[in-house]
Amino acid sequence: MGDWKNYQAPVGAFRSRVILVTGAGQGIGAAAALALAEYGATVILLGRNEKKLAKVYDEIEAAGYPQPAAIPFDLAKSGEAEIAQMAVLIQKEFGRLDGILHCANGFSHLSPLANQKMDEWMDMFKVNVAAPFVLNRALFPLLKAAPDASILLLGETHAFAPNAYWGGYSVSKVGQKNLVEIAASEWDSMENLRINLLVPGPIQSPSRLKTHPGETRESLPPTESILPAILYWMGDASRGQSGQTLQLVSEM
């Protein structure tokens, strides 16, 4: 497997690859999109906030990286038909897809189970589990046809260490592990296609600020600390490794 936590991607490691990044408007999604573009990928930015997507788009363009694409898209409010239409658009505009990085994160708030509502649970399950499943399925023909394709979901530590007040968020995030393992098993004969789950642990990110508002930001590893792992698992260095749950940093 190698030292994937400190992986140094070679120059041009993602040249000619097309990668879809969800949740690309901020946090890990934005940082990962910039890193993938830096190493040569044509990045499709997906997120619900058009202004935030535009900012990331402009940063990629200003740096002289391959021209990205931006698709304003709210996974919590979109159904199968909208996702299918997006898949058709990607096929028409790019003709290929070499990977999906699922960074979109559905989170409501921390509270006792007695105070949580069904609609909140449904929204979190939709963004964290159902939407990645439908995206993978809709884009499967393109991924299957790619010479080397990787799907990577970003997980959450509290899915594996459930605790009070994490409720629907923890339950929805643990579903990602089953999704990854089932897909990896079904795709076992496809050497060119893999799917894995990467659990960042506590790092500087917008989602961490929501769940730990009293925490000192500077006490955490920067968002960029996760990029070597993302580049490893999205690139050909991880070829042949599928169905794994990878813990980057333990909970603090």
Describe the 3D structure:
This protein has 252 residues and is α/β, with parallel strands linked by helices. The protein has a single domain, classed as NAD(P)-binding Rossmann-like Domain (Rossmann fold). The chain is 40% helix and 14% strand. The chain has a seven-stranded parallel beta sheet with strand order 3-2-1-4-5-6-7, sandwiched between helices. α6 links the parallel β5 and β6. α1 packs parallel to α2 and α4 runs parallel beside α6. It starts with 17 loop residues before the first strand and ends in a 5-residue tail after the last strand. Belongs to the short-chain dehydrogenases/reductases (SDR) family.
Protein topology:
Layout: E1 18-22, H1 27-38, E2 42-47, H2 50-62, E3 69-72, H3 80-94, E4 99-102, H4 118-138, H5 140-145, E5 149-154, H6 167-186, E6 193-199, H7 206-211, H8 227-234, E7 245-247
Parallel strand pairs: 1-2, 1-4, 2-3, 4-5, 5-6, 6-7
Helix pairs in contact: 1-2, 4-6
Roughly how many Å is the radius of gyration? 17 Å
Number of domains: 1
The CATH architecture can be given as 3-Layer(aba) Sandwich
CATH superfamily: NAD(P)-binding Rossmann-like Domain
Summed up, the helix count is 8
Query: Roughly what is the average pLDDT, rounded to an integer?
Result: 92
Q: What is the beta-strand fraction? A: 5-15%
